[in-house]
Amino acid sequence: MNKLKLDLDDYLEEFYSFFSRDAQLFLQGDSSLHYKRINELCELDLKYPKKTKLLNTAILHLEKKGILHLEELAEFVKIISYIKYLKSSCVSFELKKYFDKFVIAKEVEDILKYFKDDEFNSECDERLLNIDEKIKQLNQDINQQLRLLMQSKNLSEYLVDTQIHYINNQECLLLRGGFAKFLKASIIARSSGGGFYVVPLEIDNLKKGIKRLQEQEDEIKYEYACKFSTILSKFTLFLRFIDKEYSLIDGYLARVFFAKSKDLEFIECKNDKKIKISSFYHPAIKNAKPISVDFSKQVLIITGVNAGGKSMLLKSIMSASFLAKYLIPMKIDTHNSSISSFKSYESIIEDPQNSKNDISTFAGRMQSFAALFSQKDYLLGIDEIELGTDFEEASNLFYVLINELKKNAKIIITTHHKRLAAMLASCDDVELLAALYDIKEQRPKYEFLEGIIGKSYAYESALRYKISPNIVNEARKLQSENENNLNDLLNKNLELDAKLKFKLTQTKKKEEKLQSILDRLKDKEEKLQNDYLKRKKELENEYFLAINAAKKTLDFSSLKDKQRQINKANELKNNIKEEKIKSKEYKIGDYVKYENIEGKIIAINKNIASVENDFLTLKIDLNKLSHHTKSPSKKESTVKYERAVKNASVKLDLHGLRSEEAIEQLDKFISDALISGFDEVMVYHGIGTGKLAYAVKEFLKSHKSIKSFSDAPANMGGFGAKIIKL
């Protein structure tokens, strides 16, 4: 999958920076197990691993009995040391079980003692310590000898300056010509001013001594390299195991540290081929609105306003599934999200037109579609499906294409193609989302409504991007009346559905709150009942124990006395009665309270009261109620309606008015009649010169709410009046 098309480049590049070695996104093995281990690692406060190299080449060298340099051996030390650290830090179930598999042989573990800060430690061998001391002493002798020469009177007139120079990593002096009379030295370079960089013979001898010491040091280190390589060559299978597992561990840790750095969440993929996203933030967008969508069917069609977030919604759905598949953390509400992974991710988003290949947009997209038929179990995103061709002509083609592709894929489509959307929406496995437009603010809301086909708002978008109003108005005139009516109905449908969606959400919240209260009260009641039965049983047990103890300790002179005392004890027992709570007196109409519920009693049946609260009726035991002096406030419904116009009439007389005045009154009269619910009204305009009659007739023709109109019968005004049906 080309991640460029989902705008995840920068996000993944930052994620890769948390790896300590070269790695891939995919974690091989059981995804559910990886998820558990990563979550357990998130609970720990771990140190970052150091940068390491892949060990394949070094292990192959060991298998051939080769000798590794100490620097190469240090890479093994880094990995083994960090695994030991993790093994001691991870005590939770899955991680402990995992790290128990890493059994490090004592011979291998002993090698770690010879390294400090992941480098070979010379302090572990006295010979190396002595060599280091001698080298330090010789370097001091070199510096001292050079300073003595610089203070020599014989050389003072030949010194160009009084400092020690470093040429080719050698300490030297800068002298003028003629110095050979007083100093035996070798020339190693010339200066730009004609001087000579020289190394005195005494200094050269000291340097040779340092070189011999360094050779001895290399020989000793080589001994250790041979020793360690020989040991490790016996454990190459173990080394291959830890090299492979360390790459997996590195993948875990990169995800954990990345998540902690940005406060991100992990989500475990499911295999139900459904995608439910709650409050997902696409990482490429700053200050973005959270995206929530339930994509449970096979095809999702996103329609609606231009620049309203359709493409980003498509990319967000695909990105969330892609990140979840590879267990890459993201900003999302994991508790209310459920995401399925797919074998692959395909997208037809960009314009494939290429003049070099002599390919058109439509031809390029058809090539992309053709390549999909051989694939299975993939998530497909198609942005602006009608791009590159006449969408009216291609609607049937796209309809058949989508119906064929959805057999093996889950598909997300963005389009302005209302006909194609309507055709596909007739299928049971297709769902709709519409991008919403704020008409009042004249801008997209970047929100989406389920179950409808949205309007593109092309004219409004053009105005928002500073296209001249004159040009936009001219375009509006060219649009047919039927198209205008369809768009008006579509706009009203959007608004009504949005209101309905809001009311349903509010009702659902009320129901959930009420159910939560009822569940809590039920649990409380069950607990009290259990406590009561438990205490009753304890008291009865105490009573019988007391009776038995009395029988054993009391000495009665006769059987009659014993029986008399037992009868008395039984009488006392029978007098122990379950404490009953006296019922409080309530009557219909009383305001009562039960826990957080307030309401009014509307009926009483024996010991059960029916309490009305917020349009709901609850049946509650009278013993659990308490009087409430204040009546509960009733929440007003948010549904509003306009009442009919007062004194509305079914007749209007326009005699004596100019055409403009008459049309203005006629417009208001029809509006009032529509609000009042009249089906038929009458207008008197007279005959006269015919101007007023013509103006009325033309106005009635253009009015969208008028079904028909005709001249009145002769006895009701004839040609001078009109009967209008609404």
What would you call the shape?
A: flat
- Sheet with the most strands, sense and barrel status: 6 strands, mixed
Mean pLDDT: 84
The strands making up the biggest β-sheet line up spatially as 11-12-13-9-14-15
Q: How many beta-strand elements?
A: 24
Kindly estimate the percentage of residues that lie in beta strands according to DSSP.
Answer: 15-25%
What class do helices, strands and sheet pairing give?
Answer: alpha+beta
- The proportion of residues forming helix, as a percent range, comes to 40-55%
Termini separation comes to 58 Å
Tally of individual helices: 20
> In angstroms, what is the radius of gyration?
45 Å
Regions with little confidence, pLDDT below 50 for 5+ residues:
578-582, 632-644
What features would you highlight for this structure?
flat; six-stranded mixed beta sheet; 24 strands; 17% strand; single chain; alpha+beta; 726 residues; 46% helix; five-stranded antiparallel beta sheet
Q: How would you describe this protein?
A:
This protein is an alpha+beta fold and about 725 residues long. About 45% of the residues lie in helices and about 15% in strands. The strands form 6 sheets. A 6-stranded mixed sheet has the order 11-12-13-9-14-15, sandwiched between helices. The protein has a 5-stranded antiparallel sheet with strand order 19-18-17-16-20, with no helix packed on it. Helix 3 (about 55-65) runs antiparallel to helix 10, helix 13 (about 390-405) runs parallel beside helix 14 (about 420-425) and helix 19 (about 660-675) crosses helix 20 (about 690-700). It starts with 8 loop residues before the first helix and ends with a strand. Residues about 580 and about 630-645 have low confidence and may be disordered.
